[in-house]
Amino acid sequence: MYTNMIVHAIILVCGTVLDCAPVQPPLRRNPLSDFFMLEILTLPQLLFAFAVIILAYIVRGITGFGSALIAVPLLAFILPLTIIVPLMVLLDFIAAASHGLRHRRAVRWSLILPLLPFTLTGVGGALYLLKSVDVSVLRQALGVFIIGYALYSLFSPRLHKIRHSLLLAMPAGSFGGLIGTLFGTGGPFYVIYLQLQGIDKTSFRATIASIFLIDGGLRLSGFVSAGFYPRDTLMLVLSALPVMLGALYIGGHIHTRLRPETFQRGIGLLLIGSGAGLLLS
């Protein structure tokens, strides 16, 4: 007992007088974290991350969108946004390519092309607003708008369709580019745009995937040029890729068994979740 007291006293003097930290025993390393180059994650955290990715991409397989809306806030509990956002951009780009190529004949390019110039305008506007306006005000307004529309679509089954794509492309493209650049959640505007066109669910999924493919390609090139894909992030992407593809496959099979009414309700509920997340963030 006295020996232990003497040892602790020596350590205290060393840390106080000589300003050196006591030697700590080596921490046990997680072999899976070593493999994924993410030493900050424990094994339970890794399993949690994979569970989130499975859930997010099952939903995306069913609806054609929504993976980032689910995954980003949940993964933020264990990973920094500098890893989460590039991770989801790359995974979403691969998922969009998978959906778009598999159902390329169902893509409605006549609805996509009118969006592009207004999307670019929205991106430019967002870059200005980021420097001059309090983005929390915009985030709250967006959350209220999305929840309001989602409730309307859920409780108004006879939604009036507007088939003039150019009239809808102006606000959808502008706000999609604007909000997508500000918050990374521009998808609901494109969803609303396609819903009001009255297209079938297969064309909806293929077309929204193509929109995300174009948008994701632009964001992906920006992240690459800015150096947001170090080795640890790329290793995590590679490890999550088979999990993501399996979840998409499961979601796609669930999708083929859904009635249009159920599919519409699912989109409405997902939009409510998106709006609530913006209000609470």
Overall description:
The structure is a single chain. The protein is mainly alpha-helical and 281 residues long. The protein has one domain (42-280). 77% of the residues lie in helices and 0% in strands. The protein starts with a helix and ends with a helix. Mean pLDDT is 75; it is low at 1-37.
Please report the number of helical segments.
13
- Uncertain runs are 1-37
Name the quaternary structure: single chain
Helix content: over 70%
Helices and strands, in order, run as: HHHHHHHHHHHHH
Beta-strand residue fraction: under 5%
The number of E-state strands comes to 0
List keywords for this structure.
281 residues, disordered N terminus
List strands and helices in order, with pairings.
Blueprint: H1 2-16, H2 31-36, H3 43-63, H4 67-75, H5 81-102, H6 109-112, H7 115-132, H8 135-155, H9 165-183, H10 187-195, H11 201-225, H12 231-256, H13 260-280
Helix pairs in contact: 3-4, 3-12, 4-5, 5-11, 5-12, 7-9, 8-13, 9-10, 10-11
Short description:
This protein has helices at residues 2-16, 31-36, 43-63, 67-75, 81-102, 109-112, 115-132, 135-155, 165-183, 187-195, 201-225, 231-256, 260-280. The longest helix has 26 residues, at 231-256.
